[in-house]
Write a structure and sequence with these properties.
This protein is of the alpha+beta class and 507 residues long. 41% of the residues lie in helices and 18% in strands.
Length: 507
């Protein structure tokens, strides 16, 4: 696909057999265990502005969880600087690994290929598990990591899918076009959850639903991500040329263990964004009450998943998704990289058909279906009720990223990437992207890097700082030129000269 996209995932962290831990400290120490001998603080926080809103203003404050004051007070006791709390690592595969609000977070490198992105998402699991094993040895206690979105006590942490898209799309049109899709996407992208949850805690423990995040959305659009969460996030950080691009920062989704579900979630969303850029999404898909609907679809035990559009029409979430699918089949089948688009369109249609006939035929593909089958089977064998705490424990263990202990990894799930592809992603940035330039620079010229962020690198050359603006590398042809210059340069001085020549030719 001719689009940059990536996934940010916050992981749950705990220590085995310990009910109460200092999650901030443990998250920091976990991140620091990644190649600690090579660590130098290089991330440039000056390039981040979480208060800038796509609607044309800067927010004065961000909404925080009611527990935030207590957590902030505990953070002050650590007596650490902001940079020390973040503990940023910039990896040789182009990714970023850091502590975010008491959760270790892995941000994949930007990818252009859908299956490269799936491999890099899985690479994040393997990298973090390696960190957990190293930290466990230091601590003398086992560190456990979970790729999920809830602690069952009113706290939700995110998995954000991100897409570079055209700035020229009016925000109101983007909002009304993508929000209904996010609401109904959960029928195949949800990770499944036992219980209905609010910021006050777990309210209905025995109730199984499609998605872990759906309980936590309360407004249609805002800049917030921690509390009063919106279905459409308005944070304006494109990490690219802001005159040409915006970044769709999708926060209304679950962390998927299933490779297939990840590919379908990101692939279908990328196609819908292409439709939005072409202005092909009609107003007839707008939902009457998206805030309530995202919850009722997740909670619906009948799997009818009825939604009402703004013009008063009632349809199933499956048929709502079919409307998007039909538009993609009509307008996109011949326009984007054929191999990936063909796969997405075919699997999207097959999945919707299977969901309509019998969702339980998708136990090898979709997280929520696989988890439901697992819990049903266990409850029947053990003759326990659905509100038994044992099942909640199994729900959590489905997301354990340990390859030999996590329940997901004991199931015969459909693969879309190989272990070899994942291993390559652990050690190498994706070809044809600016992440290749970032990762290659870290691997080869780390000692010369003064500062780094998503869209720039500042090198120290003969005692003076020289910044390389990577905004233009959103263009794959420009990225290829920069990456070739990197591969051909024996030292950073040669690299800078080559880049200056490329820059002159582009002007």
């Amino acid at each position: 696909m001719q689009r940059l996209f990536g996934i940010e995932t916050e992981y749950g962290i705990t220590l085995e057999n310990e009910a109460n831990i200092d999650a901030v400290k443990q998250s920091i120490e976990l991140i620091k265990s990644y190649r600690q001998e090579d660590f130098r603080p290089m991330w440039d926080y000056g390039g981040e502005d979480p208060f800038r809103d796509e609607r044309g203003f800067r927010a004065k404050t961000l909404s925080n969880h009611p527990d935030e004051k207590k957590e902030a007070a505990r953070d002050r006791k650590h007596n650490l600087s902001f940079a020390e709390i973040k503990s940023d690592r910039i990896l040789g595969n182009g990714a970023r690994l850091y502590n975010d609000h008491a959760h270790p977070e892995y941000s994949t490198p930007e990818c252009r290929n859908l299956f490269d992105l799936v491999a890099h998402d899985k690479a994040g699991e393997r990298i973090l598990q390696h960190c957990a094993e190293a930290r466990s040895q230091q601590l003398g206690k086992r560190v456990l990591l979970y790729k999920n979105n809830t602690d069952f006590h009113g706290h939700s942490y995110g998995c954000h899918d991100n897409y570079l898209m055209a700035r020229e799309v009016p925000f109101d049109y983007l909002k009304e076009s993508i929000m209904p899709f996010f609401v109904t996407r959960q029928i195949f992208a949800g990770a499944g959850k036992l219980g209905i949850e609010t910021e006050a805690g777990l309210a209905t423990p025995g109730h199984f639903q499609l998605a872990q995040r759906s309980d936590f959305f309360h407004v249609e659009a805002s800049i917030d991500t921690m509390h009063n969460r919106p279905i459409v996030n308005t944070r304006d950080e494109p990490h690219a040329d802001a005159t040409k691009y915006r970044r769709l920062h999708g926060i209304a989704g679950d962390a998927n263990m299933s490779e297939y579900a990840t590919a379908l979630k990101v692939g279908t969303t990328a196609l819908v964004i292409a439709l939005i850029e072409q202005r092909q999404i009609p107003k007839t898909l707008v939902l009457a009450n998206p805030i309530d609907t995202i919850k009722t679809v997740s909670h619906d035990q009948t799997y009818r998943w009825l939604v009402m559009t703004a013009d008063g029409k009632t349809m199933s979430a499956i048929d709502h998704q079919r409307e998007y699918l039909a538009l993609a089949q009509k307008f996109l089948a011949d326009e984007i990289t054929k191999g990936e688009t063909d796969w997405i369109l075919a699997e999207w249609e097959d999945t919707l058909d299977a969901l309509e006939k019998d969702p339980m035929t998708l136990t090898d593909r979709l997280d929520w279906v696989a988890k439901k089958w697992l819990l049903e089977t266990f409850a029947e064998e053990e003759a326990i009720a659905w509100d038994d705490p044992w099942l909640q424990s199994l729900d959590l263990e489905y997301h354990n990223i340990h390859l030999e202990e996590g329940l997901y990894y004991g199931l015969p799930m459909r693969r879309v990437v190989t272990d070899e592809h994942i291993d390559t992603a652990i050690h190498n940035p994706p070809q044809g992207t600016r992440a290749y330039f970032r990762g290659g620079a870290v691997n080869r010229f780390s000692e010369s890097i003064k500062a780094i962020q998503w869209d720039s690198i500042t090198f120290t050359v003969k005692g003076r700082p020289i910044s390389v603006d990577m905004n233009a590398l959103a263009n794959p042809e420009v990225a290829t030129q920069y990456n070739q210059a990197l591969d051909e340069s024996p030292n950073v001085e040669t690299l800078i000269k080559k880049i200056e020549r490329i820059g002159s030719s582009l002007q």
